[in-house]
């Protein structure tokens, strides 16, 4: 399972935000929705092997983890407004969509839970190890941790480093979190495709 975690310190933890003002009333819910889109959608399909956890720390009920599972999502379309409308709906009434789960859980609780499942963490950071050095050994079956527009708080980053991890850089340019997810998916797809080619039977 390809898995992403987005630390979203301003994302509103109630259904009380306007779809016409995702950056303001939603606490950068536009950023969240773009990350969800880039994590789970390809052209005309969903990534069934991927999920993304949004750890929302905005008012009024933080923390909340809103998890999207590509294998189970129903009736969601990849535009920001539609994704945000689902975030709004599931915060009001849970279990509306089998592919979206809302839990009262902190970032550290989520990390500890995934670590106990044996997950390996890549912490995305401009000053990490260059992805070009790590490829093609980048582990697809891992959890990629990203900060929002303000970055990942040092205390949360330090907590992740208690578990098996590596800091991973996509270069010295600071990208949007959603762009990082798109780049990672692109690189991981290429690794997966190369692996399938290597393992394909020859001479047919
Ligand atoms: C817009 S950036 C945050 C920038 C923020 N000013 C900071 O210093 O962390 C959002 C997140 O994307 C990831 N990111 C951005 N550029 C990156 C890069 N070149 N390599 C690895 N991760 C990156 C990091 O996880 C970062 O927390």
Can you describe this structure?
The protein is α/β, with parallel strands linked by helices and 204 residues long. 34% of the residues lie in helices and 23% in strands. The chain contains six helices and nine strands; from the N terminus they run E-H-E-E-E-E-H-E-H-E-H-E-H-E-H. The strands form two sheets. Strands 6-5-4-1-8-7-9 form a seven-stranded mixed beta sheet, with helices on both faces. The protein has a two-stranded antiparallel sheet with strand order 2-3. A hairpin with a 2-residue loop joins strand 2 and strand 3. The model has no long low-confidence stretch (mean pLDDT 96). S-adenosylmethionine (SAM) is lined by residues 124-126, 146-147, 149-152, 169-171, 173-177, 180.
Task: Please describe the topology of this protein.
Layout: E1 2-8, H1 29-40, E2 41-42, E3 45-46, E4 50-56, E5 64-69, H2 80-92, E6 100-103, H3 107-116, E7 121-130, H4 131-134, E8 143-146, H5 154-160, E9 165-169, H6 177-199
The structure holds S-adenosylmethionine.
């Amino acid at each position: 399972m390809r898995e992403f975690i987005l630390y979203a310190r301003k994302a509103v933890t109630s259904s009380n935000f306007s779809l016409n003002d995702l950056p303001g009333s939603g606490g950068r819910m536009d950023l969240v929705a773009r990350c969800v889109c880039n994590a789970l959608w390809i052209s005309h399909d969903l990534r069934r092997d991927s999920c993304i956890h949004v750890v929302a720390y905005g008012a009024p009920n933080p923390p909340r983890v809103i998890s999207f599972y590509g294998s189970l999502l129903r009736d969601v379309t990849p535009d920001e407004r539609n994704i945000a409308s689902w975030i709004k709906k599931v915060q009001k009434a849970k279990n509306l969509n089998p592919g979206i789960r809302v839990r009262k859980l902190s970032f550290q609780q989520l990390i500890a839970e995934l670590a106990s499942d044996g997950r390996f963490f890549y912490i995305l950071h401009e000053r990490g190890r260059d992805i070009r050095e790590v490829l093609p050994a980048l582990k697809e079956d891992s959890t990629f941790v990203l900060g929002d527009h303000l970055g990942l708080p040092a205390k949360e980053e330090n907590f992740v480093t208690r578990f098996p991890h590596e800091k991973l850089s996509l270069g010295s340019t600071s990208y949007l979190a959603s762009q990082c997810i798109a780049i990672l998916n692109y690189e991981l797809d290429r690794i997966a495709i190369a692996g399938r080619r290597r393992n394909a039977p020859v001479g047919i």
